[in-house]
Write a structure and sequence with these properties.
284 residues, alpha/beta, five-stranded mixed beta sheet, rod-shaped
């Protein structure tokens, strides 16, 4: 429900004339449910900016949140939602801070003194404030989803370390399931490590992968092929008896890719290969 022009004007006038009292009470009511996690002073700084933008929007003739007059107000509400999401507040706690303006307005006494017309105004103002709160709720949800996505990406990177085991030998110890998203991170980090270190050998250790199916094998093979394009030879380690049986049963072919039972075996193989290559180079 949109505010009528005269209702918006009266709300803007009330916010301007009782600015300090409304700001003080709004901050107190907004901070109360947060139980000390946000001080009244901190709450006041946030609500003061909202109050300022709300007054400006109403002065420009805003009747709802969809118009151009509320662009800056929407931006402040969105930033508040993002800030609260990062601080660990809930969407309900964030929206409640907006709804607290209703109490602050009611306590100014205008509704009780003004009779039926003032009551109609208050109902219209409350619906407008509800719109602000719902917008904040939705903005919070979007911000939270973005934070979760960023955290998942960070966890993927942390769970996929590339370590230098020996001069010219890097390794990627994989732990847990290997889906498409993680396989992409594995490939990117391994290729970057090959460029940074100039290593001619890379070990992909799947000891910590609980099960190998066709999809996992395809991801590993793609990573090996990408490393080969960079001029590096890959060795797959961690081929346990159960994994070997599964690979045979599925008909997965690793071709000429070296496979070893343990990471130590793979490292020894890489060192021997490197020594043989150096020896052949000297003889040539």
């Amino acid at each position: 429900m949109a505010l009528k022009a005269e209702q918006g004007e009266r709300l803007g006038k009330l916010l301007a004339e009782r600015s300090e009292k409304i700001a003080k009470r709004w901050a107190e009511v907004a901070a109360a449910p947060l139980k000390g996690r946000l001080t009244v002073a901190e709450s006041g700084r946030q609500t003061a900016e909202l109050q300022s933008q709300l007054q400006k929007a109403l002065a420009d003739g805003a009747a709802d949140l969809r118009g151009a007059q509320t662009t800056e107000l929407r931006a402040v509400l969105t930033e508040l939602s993002r800030s609260r999401a990062r601080q660990g507040f809930t969407a309900s706690e964030t929206a409640t801070s907006i709804f607290a303006l209703k109490s602050a307005l009611y306590e100014m006494g205008e509704v009780e003194k003004g009779g039926e017309n003032a009551l109609r105004d208050y109902v219209a103002w409350s619906l407008f404030i509800d719109e602000l709160g719902l917008f904040t709720f939705e903005a919070f949800a979007r911000a939270r989803e973005q934070i979760i996505t960023e955290q998942n990406e960070q966890l993927l990177e942390l769970s996929t370390p590339v370590v230098k085991l020996w001069d010219g030998v890097v390794a990627v110890p994989l732990v847990g399931t290997l889906d498409s998203a993680r396989a992409q991170v594995v490939m990117e980090r391994l290729l970057q490590a090959l460029v940074d270190t100039g290593s001619p050998y890379a070990i992909i250790d799947i000891t910590g992968v609980p099960a190998v199916d066709t999809q996992v094998a395809q991801h590993v093979l793609k990573t090996v092929m990408a490393a080969r394009l960079m001029g590096a030879e890959c060795i797959i380690s961690g081929i346990r008896p159960q994994i070997a049986q599964t690979i045979v049963a599925l008909g997965i072919e690793f071709g000429d890719i070296a496979t070893k039972a343990t990471l130590a075996d793979a490292l020894r193989h890489a060192i021997r290969r490197a020594a043989a290559t150096r020896a052949a180079t000297r003889e040539a």
